[in-house]
Amino acid sequence: MSKLLKTAQGSETIPSDCWESAFHHLNSAELKAVALTWKDFLRLVKKSLNVVNPDVTLFSKQIKRFTHLKRIDLRDFQGDLDEAIREIARSGLCLENLYLRGTAFETQSLKELGSNPNIAKNLKVLHCLQNQRFNDDNDLAVIANSFPNLEQLQIGHKESFVASSVYSVFSTHVLIMGSGNVDHVVNVTEHGIGLLLRNMPKMERLCIAHIDKSWSAINIENSIGHTKSLTHLAFVDMDVSDNLLMEIGKLKLKYFSVSRCRNYTVSGLLAVSKYLNVLRIEDANIRDLDVEFLLGRGDLANLTCTEIISNQVTSSTLLLLLMKCSSLVDIKLTAPNFKNGLVNNIPLTIDELAILVTRVLNHNLRRLDLSRCSVTDRLLLLIGWVCPNLELLDLSFCSLVTSRGVEAIFKGCRRLTGLRLRGYMKAKMIEENSEVPETLKVVSLEDSQIDDEGLDMIRTKCPQLISFNLIGCQNVTLKSIKRMVKNIKTLTQLLFKCEKVNSGELLEWMLSKGHLASLKEINLPRETLLTDTQKEAFLQHGCLIRGC
């Protein structure tokens, strides 16, 4: 039964969870009115607490007042962390998320925290970062035994250091288990990881990094099967055997990442592929033939996102992915030798290219990231033909791309909404006779060689843009940016940091001419000095000024 609030005039008031349900139906103005008239309002609705003040006594008063807290963040707390943890342990909170950072707390404090039955039962997320007193498997066992219902755990010196999954789909949720051999702080072994896996069956997301091979009877291979709830798994810089991958294959993983690991083969990867939605491979030695083997033998019907980082794969891998994995929605490839593939090196005739298109045509692909690959205009011509529903394309630092390749993309991908060309090497991005999709809303030309003439062409051909990034474009002047702001009536976000552009003068011109009808955010050089009057004027127009 819900805990009742204090009695009023001899009768019990409404239970707190009923109040919470009622609050969900109020808008912000109504909630503000309630907060001003009812002193207990904040106590009921406050679920999260970020602690900065080092006074433990003050912290103790806060957690006694806010009895419905579910999340406490002590990463910026500079006081006695051990005592703060003990205060939580002595409270009646049903805490679900706890974030710790620092070198000043003992594992014993976590043991006391776990002795609180409410916290032991409800804690799902625990981050213990930069704790140099966390030394070995025994400390890990304390966590495993104290918090059996944990679903997310981070231990180590860095937070989410495996975060470059495809378009960061899962980057904010990846778990860290050990990073000891990098910083010599967390000396966790396979034995400790095995104990953890056996004691935490509800673990959903796990990243294991820099863990040395152990010959203990308890290890990752014979313990991974205990984590029946595991859906996301990542290995970084460690030995991963095919036998281990076979055991992992018995789980229904949705996300799997193997980064800079050793001793596994493509045959092992086949074992984990059946249920995957996301597959990330960072391996300097994986080749086109390996990818072809995986796509030909594996069950990848559920795969929607993939990222491959390798020095050996070429543009042929992209064609294989498009041709043999039609379920893919996101593809990210990082391959320095990309230009050595089929399309870039073999001069196909129009008829041969047409035959290739019929074999490779992919209607599902929405996002393609080929940044830092040696992409040619010829390949972009093919992509335009075979990926008609492409929405986002990243060609950053693809030095061989010209306006002809961009034109081919515009012609074939009529649903394109975003194009990123950071480091673009040409002065012009769009040709005069190019037909730009009406769906194009976001263009990023950061650190590019675009000039005033090229910018004017974009202004003319893309009157529907809502976001434009010109940070680091040194060949653009104030005049062309003024023309762009004046003529693109839909622009809501403008980012610029151009050597030839006086940002103060541009802002003053915007205010004086009233060209702020649509702009909601302007990112400009941090060194720009704005008066309080200017800041207030932009805010009154609903436009936020940020530094970049």
TrEMBL record:
One of its GO terms (biological process) is SCF-dependent proteasomal ubiquitin-dependent protein catabolic process. This is Leucine-rich repeat, cysteine-containing subtype. It holds the Pfam family LRR_6. Signal peptide: none annotated. One of its GO terms (cellular component) is SCF ubiquitin ligase complex. It comes from Corchorus olitorius.
